[in-house]
Amino acid sequence: MPPRVHHSVPIRGEYSSTVTDNNAPRPVPDSSSGPSADPSADPGTGPSAGRSADLRAQGLPAAVLWDMDGTLVDTEPYWMAEEHLLVSEFGGTWTDADAHALIGNALIDSAHYIQRHGGVNLPAEEIIARLTTGVVRRIAVEVPWRPGARELLTELHDLGVPCALVTMSYREMAEAIIGTLPGEYFRFLVTGDEVTHGKPHAEPYLKAAGLLGVAPGECVAIEDSLTGVASAEAAGVPLLAVEHLVPVPERAGRTVVRTLDGWTAKDLGKLL
Length: 272
Fold this sequence. Notes:
The protein is an alpha/beta fold. Helices cover about 35% and strands about 10% of the residues. The chain has a six-stranded parallel beta sheet, with helices on both faces. About 45% of the residues are buried.
């Protein structure tokens, strides 16, 4: 196990400033419908139970739940640049401390913060729409993969370990990122516009595990932010924290590393 210690994309339609009322995460296009996302469902009796047992017998996790911004891709600088542009347009001041305070937050919480601290006199939904549109435009120029992330994702795909993306970004942006991959690397997306409670609440990770039909304790979550770490741990999902822009304290039951470089699927299985 390694030591412990944000090309072109298709943009799938214009972003709507209206936040969806549908709180049930949807499968990625062309994927199967999957099991129920109800966290109270018993994953031990679902259709995925046999496959999960096979993976665990091979020393692999039953599923891997990926954060996106800062973990899979280094898009945090894109968000920060768009925040600076928006706040400056309204004559406000936006510091690096302000930008770092939003890392990993639900977008609606970030929008309210920008209203209060940046002097942006726009509805929260419009702030989200403008930030997301700007970030997606930057992604269309380059997708900044984090070191080792795409390699690990590819290995998990090749081994048949199911993955879900659990992000507080909205679906439009998540689809722009995964649309650059050469296959169906994620069975499901759980995005910030499709949950009632965002990170640090447990709901996003519980829904992802439920969609995959896997017990939270048999998954591994990969996160970089303190809010994401709190969400995964609240859901009872074993955690690999990859420090990036904010430090993640060491704690019992939590593995903290500086990079995914050199990490393998078997290494993730050892965290269970």
